[in-house]
Design a protein that fits this description.
CATH architecture of the largest domain: Sandwich
CATH superfamily of the largest domain: Jelly Rolls
Mean pLDDT: 94
Radius of gyration: 24 Å
Distance between the termini: 56 Å
Bound molecules: fe (ii) ion
Length: 326
């Protein structure tokens, strides 16, 4: 066999006379031969994922959170949440590949200090009366049925002036930020951000009545992929697609799949979602995670509204989006 001499300016010449020599040299150079077998291939035929279709029941988690209300001190109130960890081995955080959700509770009289971070975030308000959020100095109500946005880089905090514990679901793109690694996080210098204005009608708030009014004039998908549906425009949060769809009692959507990772939150009603081979019966407040390419369909058993957050805009922007009825 011919001998190839490699000149290494930083050290002695290396002689490569055999495959073993070559592999030793590739180790030394921190390169990987593309022709060797790999534990995990580089390409595969169609989307696959470790994430599994999963449902979380709001009533069960709410009971656990109510207990946390007495056990977790007010100083930790901003973190009195329970994260919807997708239950595959080794995962301790993400709900789907790019997104994470958590149920959160705040007690009457509590105020959470403000902070800001790179991750974009939103809240689906499940049971709340008298609670509020402060986003970039603007105080806005957080009431049942509202969706509140806290875009990345915006200061945000919250408090509660009502009489009963308030519950909501947080949704953030933290797993995406972890993947791409642009994370910044800052506590507000004076702990509590000063309230510069009070606005019931805020660009950070989609209030329940406006969502319902929008659904009254919304159109169904003619191919029955979804019921009458509105998109919640959130230009400051381009990583997430936000929609609310209405399903009349007994309405069914066609079985479909797409490359987008989706999380559905039941804002009203009851029904079931079939994902792959599983059927999740749901009611108000429940959450269903649908990983990429998992076939799913919904069927309602009473008038329902489903909020959906997904990474569909990212998939589209990158030209990775693909969908089909199955
Ligand atoms: Fe936050």
């Amino acid at each position: 066999m011919d001998t190839v001499m490699i000149k290494d300016n930083a050290g002695p010449q290396t002689e490569i006379a055999s495959l073993d020599d070559l592999y030793r040299e590739t180790e030394r150079l921190e390169v990987t031969p593309g022709w060797v077998g790999r534990d995990r291939p580089i390409f595969w035929k169609e989307p696959r994922t470790d994430f599994v279709p999963t449902q979380w029941r709001y009533r069960q988690v709410r009971d656990a959170l109510a207990s946390a209300g007495t056990l977790i001190d007010v100083a930790l109130a901003e973190r009195r949440n329970l994260i919807l960890r997708n239950p595959f081995p080794g995962n301790n955080f993400a709900t789907v590949r790019t997104l994470v959700c958590a149920y959160q509770m705040i007690l009457p009289g509590e105020v959470a200090p403000s902070h800001r971070h790179s991750a974009h975030a939103l809240r689906v308000i499940l049971d709340a009366k008298g609670s509020y959020s402060v986003v970039n100095g603007e105080k806005t109500p957080m009431a049942s049925g509202d969706i509140i946005l806290t875009p990345g880089g915006h200061w945000h905090g919250h408090g509660h002036e009502g009489a009963e514990p308030a519950y909501w679901l947080d949704g953030l793109d933290i797993p995406l930020v972890h993947l791409m690694e642009p994370m910044f996080f800052e506590e507000y210098p004076d702990k509590y951000e000063k309230i510069a204005s009070v606005a019931a009608d805020s660009r950070f708030r989609f209030c329940r009545d406006a969502i319902l009014a929008g659904l009254d004039t919304a159109k169904s998908d003619p191919e029955e992929g979804h019921g009458p549906r509105i998109t919640l425009e959130a230009p400051d949060m381009p990583t997430m697609g936000l929609t609310v769809e209405r399903l009349g009692s007994g309405q069914r959507t066609r079985r479909q799949r797409s490359t987008a990772n989706r999380i559905f939150v039941v804002m009203e009603g009851s029904g079931e979602t079939k994902v792959g081979e599983e059927t999740f019966a749901w009611q108000k407040g429940d959450t269903v995670a649908i990983p990429t390419w998992a076939p799913f369909s919904h069927q309602s058993t009473s008038d329902s509204q489903l909020f959906c957050m997904s990474d569909e805009p990212l998939m589209r922007a990158f030209k990775y989006y693909r969908s089909e009825f199955v």
